[in-house]
Write a structure and sequence with these properties.
single chain, alpha+beta, 4 domains, three-stranded antiparallel β-sheet, 3 helices, about 20% helix, elongated
């Protein structure tokens, strides 16, 4: 095979040489592209990280608490993370013991009298220079005829009525029905006769009823006053 005219002294350039050159240029371009991308990514990451100058420790920018948290590079040291010294330090004073005061035996104590903002004495005191009147607790109001309750009063002290001597001599028996209301402290109030088989038993029954004591009725976890009716039976057999 002979060279064509005019091609003397020129190197041969064929498909093999072109393929080799294309492979070299492609790898070179890919490497440059990867290097540029990595440089951009690392420059963005390094922009948010500040080097503290300490060996093996970096400080991340604070977000909320205003202090830097040391992050060790070695994964084995993650359990020993402490707040950096540049964080806010709290200063606590040294407690000083104070001795208890000693009361003066000759000191005059104030009387046990309280005064309301209007200057009225309460708790059994007397109105002084502040003026005002002594507040007296108001008595329990008379309950309505039908007072709803959760628990009715319960007797804790029962006093038997005295059997009249005249009724004993006459072999007389009877029953007296008394009506009264029990206040919030369990005391009977306004005792009256509702029905009686013999008037001779009325007064002994009323006298005994006034000496009774009750556990007051309860409604909504609190004591309330309520009316009750109670029979008092006079039986000669009960005296023996």
């Amino acid at each position: 095979m002979t060279d064509r005219p005019g091609s003397a002294g020129r190197p041969r350039y064929g498909a093999i040489e072109l393929k080799d050159s294309m492979q070299l240029y492609w790898m070179t371009g890919l490497g440059l592209a990867i290097a540029i991308h990595l440089a951009v990514v690392f420059s963005y990451k390094l922009a948010g990280v500040t080097d503290s100058g300490e060996t093996g420790v970096i400080y991340v920018r604070p977000v909320h608490i205003g202090v830097y948290l040391p992050l060790p590079i070695n994964p084995d040291l993650r359990t020993s993370i402490n707040i950096a010294e540049r964080g806010v330090k709290r200063s606590v004073g040294t407690p000083v013991p104070v001795p208890d005061p000693i009361a003066d035996p000759g000191q005059e104590l104030a009387p046990n009298v309280d005064f309301t903002p209007e200057g009225t004495a309460v708790n059994g005191g007397e109105a002084g220079e502040y003026g005002g009147e002594i507040k007296i607790p108001e008595p329990d109001a008379v309950p309505p005829p039908f007072q709803p309750v959760e628990e009715m009063p319960k007797i804790i002290k029962r006093v038997p009525p005295v059997y009249p001597e005249l009724a004993i001599k006459a072999n007389l028996e009877g029953t007296v029905y008394l009506k009264f209301w029990v206040d919030k402290e369990g005391n009977p109030r306004d005792v009256s006769v509702v029905q009686s088989t013999a008037d001779i038993f009325n007064e002994p029954a009323i006298t005994a009823a006034k000496q009774f004591l009750f556990i007051p009725a309860y409604m909504n976890a609190g004591p309330v006053a309520v009316w009750i009716t109670m029979p008092f039976r006079f039986r000669l057999a009960d005296r023996k």
